[in-house]
Write the structure tokens for this entry.
Amino acid sequence: MGLDRSRQAGKKIKGLKRHLITDTLGLVPAVLVNAANVHDTTGGKLPLDDLAAAHPGVTKLWADGGYQNSIFNHGARLGIYVEPLPKR
């Protein structure tokens, strides 16, 4: 089963998009790779689901500010406080 290498609508980038969660040691408890045309709000929810199922003790997560409120709300429903990283 391969991934469709498509274009991200707004940026016209050909390829894949990666949603990666790491812990403070740099270990990867959850990752998702999908086509670039899948929106962040859709692709970002699945690694959160995987993280909550595999590591129920996780209660806080920092996320890129590019993710929208639906990701933060989805994390809250899973019992994970998702905080956006401050802008640089």
User: Anything to note?
Assistant: Residues 45-54 form the longest helix (10 residues).
